[in-house]
Amino acid sequence: MQELMYQVVNGTSIYPTGTKYKVKGYEVMGKTGTAQIADPRGGYLEGKYNYVKSFASIFPKSDPQIILYASTSKYYGTLANRIKPVIENIGKYINVEADTTEEKEEELKIKSYINKTTKSSIKNLKTNKLNTIVIGDGKKVINQYPKKGTIVNENTKVFLLTNSTNYIMPDVTGWSTGEITNFGNLIGLEFNFSGYGFATSQSLAAGSKINVSKKVSIKLETKYVNN
Q: Are strands 216-221 and 191-195 parallel, antiparallel or unpaired?
């Protein structure tokens, strides 16, 4: 569970929901929360800000000492901007030294690759140190994930769907549930997941042709196991 919460904040894929809470040099584990607000007239309130948002955190991961929970209702700002300084101040107070040698990950904004050539798109993504997953062997990109404007970190998987239905199953070992689901959504392929964490095996071998009418089974396990 600690590893799963650590990945919510520090995971390198676009799937984690808490990367905004990452504090350089501190081993922060956490879980984000979003809930609708009940409307007194029935149902739920509508609107961009009519939500209760929360963040539950435990740190440091190597020796958990602090539990921090914050919740806001109809908040117009960014909760992470309020929480991160608190984590830093608590870390200093309990003498948890930040690792200043940690290499800074560069944040990137995804461009639109739709209607561009597959070759040029791959080249651009490689230049930006992004992990490109090409779907089909077409020469033109017709869809992508993440979408244009999404902020990601280096090595994030970017899926490019080409104008070809020759879909080949990739080796998803080490992929998160979110990454596998994002891949499947682009071609209409469904998965059966068992376990939690990251993929360790798949029922359809890597390199096999995909039949989108048949579900693929994926076994998941936590990436790290503490003995």
A: parallel
Whose CA is closest to 172, among 147, 198, 153, 208? 198
The helix (H) or strand (E) run that includes residue 135 is strand 131-135
CB 170 within 8 A of CB 133: yes
Give 26's DSSP letter. S
d(CA 22, CA 32): 12
Please count the CA atoms within 13 angstroms of the CA of 160 that sit on its side-chain side. 29
Beta-carbon-side half-sphere exposure of residue 50 (alpha carbons within 13 Å): 9
Tokens of 83: 């929480």
User: Per the confidence metrics, is the pTM higher than 0.90?
Assistant: no
> Distance (Å, rounded) from C-alpha 72 to C-alpha 35?
10
Nearest partner of 58 among 18, 7, 97, 2, judged by Cα: 2
Domain ranges of the chain: 2-93, 107-221
Residue 125 dihedral angles phi and psi, to the nearest 5°: -65, -40
Per residue in 67-100, pLDDT (tens digit) is 999 999 988 777 888 898 898 888 877 776 555 4
Domain 107-221 = CATH 3.40.50.300: no
